């Protein structure tokens, strides 16, 4: 009988021991879970911060967007050609422009006593730029000056594109904030931020359009020059024509000299007054 009571007592002790261990484990697990929940941020805050960081760096860390931008090279040039007849040379230039799909953006003609000049600002497709230069170099006239330049703006274009994408992302964020704003002060501040971003976006888009236009159509400055004062080394002109030009030039110089002397007439009036004063002073010194 004693052995039976001892056996039951041992089983009860073992059972209580197991229950205590289980209770301790459950309590410790609950405490650990509470610690984790206290340390971890709110779900909405974590999601919003992650979305903001992902959106703000999406365009910067996206290599496919950067690689998709092709080379942006702006070509410019200028050339001065001496011709014998401005009108004839202008007709030749018009035919060359028609073949190259180019057009004249601005035209400026000047006519002086010594020369005539026609300045043309030409826009030509990028692919036809070199063909246009070769056409002007052959057959139009004598080249006096020539300057060709190329400017690689790929880095600037990429930088502006990335900043523009980021500004558009932040613009959408501010618009979402404006829809959920609760006070008038917050609404005014958010609207001011939106206005600034819209202005910056317009400027960036305008800069990209300008670069695209300069890349697509190159700018070429052509000057057709004709010298009026002729010499035997530049043209085959008879003695009579050269004599008439020299006579006209001499007469123009004489007229210019005479007009220059006449322009000193106030000094001629002061000269007699100076002589009278000098004579009076001389008489006083003699007395």
TrEMBL record:
TM regions (residue ranges): 254-278
Keyword annotations of the record: Coiled coil, Membrane, Transmembrane, Transmembrane helix
A Pfam family it matches: DUF4349
UniProt key word Transmembrane: yes
Superkingdom: Bacteria
Domain DUF4349: 71-277
InterPro entries found in the cross-reference section: DUF4349 (IPR025645)
Coiled coil: 187-214
Protein name in the entry: DUF4349 domain-containing protein
Organism annotation: Chryseobacterium oryctis
